[in-house]
Design goal:
The protein is mainly α. It contains 4 helices and 4 strands, in the order ααβαββαβ. The strands form 2 sheets. Strands 1-4 form a two-stranded antiparallel ribbon. A hairpin with a 5-residue loop joins strand 2 and strand 3. The longest helix has 22 residues. The protein is globular and about 50 Å long. The two termini are 24 Å apart.
């Protein structure tokens, strides 16, 4: 189900829904079973191996194992200016770019780790970041 065919949207929705449930539970202060965190790694597993297992296809697809059908994406984290398309302007007429190209509000002055780039792609990426599909 869902409102979009985009797996990235489904992954983001799962992360946001989990956060909303956590906030709601904290406000009610009910004693509940310990919550299992839903992380970027969790939603990635749900979108790959978990989805394959849910469809009873885990023996054929869902991971990079010998004997399974190859199904993968080549992702470019930084989308090029041409891919980003038109720019938009805020009230101060400062040019802004879609995604996080050239403007990084989370710039820490160091290169992001692979996990940080992976999480950034899940949260901010879209089809413009997908270079090839197999």
């Amino acid at each position: 189900g869902g409102y979009s065919i985009s797996m990235l949207n489904a992954m983001r929705t799962a992360l946001l829904t989990h956060k909303a449930i956590l906030i709601s539970s904290a406000e009610r202060k009910e004693e509940e079973e310990e919550d299992v965190p839903v992380t970027s790694e969790t939603v990635f597993w749900m979108a790959t191996q978990g989805g394959a297992e849910a469809l009873n296809l885990g023996h054929e697809i869902g991971s990079f194992e010998a004997g399974k059908r190859f199904d993968a994406l080549m992702v470019e984290i930084e989308a090029s200016q041409e891919q980003l398309g038109e720019h938009y302007y805020d009230d101060s007429n400062v040019q802004r770019h879609h995604l996080y190209h050239n403007i990084d509000p989370f710039d820490t002055g160091r290169s992001p780790t692979d996990m940080e780039e992976f999480e950034r792609f899940i949260h901010l990426g879209d089809s413009r970041n997908i270079k090839q599909v197999w």
